[in-house]
Amino acid sequence: MSWIKTYLSSSIGRKQIVAKTGILLCLFLLTHLAGNLLLFCGFTTEYCAFNEYAAKLTSNKPFLYFAEVILFSIFGTHIYLALTLNAENSQARGPVGYDVNANAGDLTVPSKTMRFSGLWTLVFLIQHLYNFKFADQGEKGLFGVVEDAFQNPMWSAYYVLSMFVLAMHVRHGVKSVFQTYGVNHVKYNDIINKISLGYAAIIFIGFSSIPVWFLLKGGAA
Description:
Elements: H1 2-9, H2 11-36, H3 49-59, H4 61-93, H5 109-112, H6 114-133, H7 141-149, H8 153-180, H9 186-217
């Protein structure tokens, strides 16, 4: 078991764990987005695809709680190790950001604001859970909760802004995963940039389209 202790205490090992947890969180974002896009199916008194989806997720309480513990553990590990590595990088080289590969020279706006975007996303997540997960549901169920929330232009604007901040975070995060595992060559950098930009665009456009849609359609069912 000593190799595990050595791996977890090494900078390379912790960088790889940050990368692995980041990949899992990126996959979660895609599945979460896919479920949220069911909101576009609308609501009728006979059937609501989004409410049906939400009901299936919450029907098995033990599995749901287990999945939530795993998800929050991944999220907590990602945050803790990322901040720890950033602090070590700051002490060794000065404040160079939350790069998992500081030698890559990728000092873009997303890379220089990773701590900020990560903490912003954490605050947003807490607010998001409070507003949606623990909200009282009326006749329209969870669909109605989302609909009512996005009738507020200020909340919708904050949501879209938060998705932009998240998109910047994951754009650099995806690039950093490749760098962590040594895929950092001029031959592949253009492809990596396109992959990271494409993923960030999917996240931003996909999630942001939801409040925009509710604002445009108003309160109609």
